[in-house]
Amino acid sequence: MPGPYTLSEGCPYANNATSVQVRNGSGGGLVLLQDTQLIETLAHFSRERIPERVVHAKAAGAYGEFEVTHDCSDLTSASFLNTIGKKTPVLLRISTVGPERGSADTVRDVHGWAMKLYTDEGNLDWVFNNTPVFFVRDPIKFPSLNRSHKRHPRTNSPSADMFWDFHTGNPEGIHQLMHLFSDRGTPASLRHMNAYSGHTYKFTKEDGSFKYIKVHIKTQLGVKNFDEETATKFAGQNPDYLVDDLFDAIEKGDYPKWNIYVQVMEPEQAENYKWNIFDMTKVWPHHDFPLRQIGQLTLNRNPRNYFTDIEQAAFSPSTMVPGWAPSADPMLQARMFAYPDAARYRLGVNYQHLPTNHAKVPIYCPFQRDGFMNFTDNYGDDPNYVGSSLRPTTFKTESRVGTNKLSTLTEHEKWAGEISSFTSELTPQDFEQATGLWKVLGRDPGHQDRFVSNLSHNVAKVTSSDLRLKVYDLFSRVDKKLGDRLRSETEALRT
Ligand code: NDP
Question: Are 63 and 210 part of one and the same domain?
């Protein structure tokens, strides 16, 4: 039972539903500035929203555990992976990307998969998606991409013209567009959805060796998707359909589970591989790099309070543990800056202190202190500068930064080259895997038909005939017949 009611500074108070008024008989009266309860209640209400995430605003979240199922000591020295059966608590937040926090969650969109593993060597964040690739490979395009999927600056409404103008102007995203307009663009349930790291990461070992990896998270329940018509119907009937589905299943004890796999690539293979493995628009084909299971994920507990547990959660690819390291994917490198920066803006500079973000291991980082909303002991009188001889800092292991086995910044990669602008120039290679996916859809009866229908209903909203021609041309480069069908079905919808 909660304690007796008080004001926010602790004063016991006898009534929470009446303002203090100078009354004239039984009629209305004047409220008083001295009514602290009224003033504080109104003032707090005006401030109870924090900035919504610019992307990934609409979400569901839950707690669970990651369990190691297979030995992977040959791949990484990460402590949370070092023993079969070892369990690590996790928080998972699954979102759409473009639409706002109150939007319908069954609309066609990529779905974000943000997972915090509270390991015994600090937090590891997996900030993934339900697609294995992405729309762009140069991070400078990230804000433009997202704005083109959002509201038009004049009409305040999403615009097919803006969407397709961006994508025909930045066609390296064709592979991701193929994923988006397939059935997987409208999952029927978050429990029946896969997720992928997309980026290449590294598993590292204490001896300084490393391997490149990509992570695959596959639902044990099987993938299930809505067709466009059903997804649209649910968007109207219950805009929180996917949120409710996940919450209700967990509440009933029907815990969703996923298998966690990695694809593994040796550094020497990466140098000679036919595709740039740091290009986020490409997958590693399964037959070249088979999946190897490392673990299993179970969600088993709903949040007690959505705001404190999920809305205040902050995830970033820069949140890492020893044994796990970033690759030279430019998108990943840029996200490692942008995500914590977004959290500092949205939640404040001390966002790591919030209970949902706080590591489950002791933190000792006295060289970052003070700042707004610091509600820790702020390291008391510990030195606030490095190199103190008065009270020296101790380390878990003594070694140089960079080769420190506890550091994620291992020294095994040597980079040298000319400074130049990263190029997103299109090559025929950019269509190869998009064509591969078109063929994969062909294995599932009716899927290619649904794909053309999903896409044509979207492209039919494009007002400019020149722009529509560019879209047909883009998809003709994936498959000539696909382009032709898209053109005829789209133009038929416009007549
Ligand atoms: P395979 O021919 O070995 O297998 C195809 C894979 O496609 C499946 O394993 C499945 O991945 C995935 N898939 C099946 N149906 C769909 C769908 N409707 N939408 C999206 N993905 C689907 O694959 P390859 O590795 O040779 O790649 C062929 C194409 O498959 C790629 O161009 C890529 O677009 C797609 N794909 C590849 C992935 C990879 O990492 N190699 C991952 C996902 C898709 P899953 O079991 O993960 O659902």
Answer: yes
